[in-house]
Amino acid sequence: GESLDFSFSGLKTAVINQVHAIRQKDGLLPAADIAASFTRAIASGVRKRLEQAYGREPFHTFVLAGGVSANSHLRAVSQEFCREHGVRFCVPPPEFCTDNAVMIGVQGFYEAAAGHFAGNDLNPESTCDI
C-alpha cells in the first residue's frame, strides 16, 4: 500500500518559489494568506494520513506530541478526526509542547557542570530501528 510517511519539503519549496515570484512582481507579500494556506495544506495532509492509517488498522488512541503538537491547526484536525472515529485523543497542554533541543541543551549543561565530557572522536549514532 501507499506509504504513510510524509514530508513537506516540496510544499516548502513551492511556497518559497511563490514568495520570490510575488516579490519580483510588486513586492506586496500577503504573508498572512500564505501562512494560512501553508498551514491548511499541512493540516490537511496530516488528516489524510490519519485516515489512511486508521483505514489500514483501526486504533483506539492517538497521541500528538513534540514541538508540532503546539500547533492549534494540527490539534484541531487531530481532535476532529478522533471525535469522528471514536478514538481517544491525547495531547499535552501547549506549554509542555516544546522542542526537545532545549531539554538536550539543559542536560548538556548539567553534564558539563558535573565534569562529564565526551571525547572529540564521538560520532552521532541513530538508535532508531525503524
In a nutshell, what does this entry contain?
With 130 residues, this protein is mainly alpha-helical. The chain contains four helices and two strands; from the N terminus they run H-H-E-H-E-H.
Distance, first to last CA: 18 Å
Helix and strand sequence: HHEHEH
Shape designation: extended
List the uncertain runs: none
The value of Rg in angstroms is 20 Å
Overall residue-averaged pLDDT value: 88
Spatially, the strands of the biggest sheet line up as 1-2
The total count of strands amounts to 2
Contiguous helical run count = 4
Note the main sheet: 2 strands, parallel
What is the strand content?
A: under 5%
Percent helix, as a range, is 40-55%
Class from secondary-structure proportions: mainly alpha
SSE topology sketch:
Elements: H1 9-25, H2 31-56, E1 61-63, H3 72-85, E2 88-90, H4 100-113
Parallel strand pairs: 1-2
Helix pairs in contact: 2-3
Structure notes:
It is a single chain. The chain is mostly helical. 55% of the residues lie in helices and 5% in strands. The chain contains 4 helices and 2 strands; from the N terminus they run H-H-E-H-E-H. It has a two-stranded parallel sheet with strand order 1-2. Strand 1 (61-63), helix 3 and strand 2 form a beta-alpha-beta unit. The longest helix has 26 residues, at 31-56. The chain is extended and about 55 Å long. It starts with 8 loop residues before the first helix and ends in a 17-residue tail after the last helix. The mean pLDDT is 88.
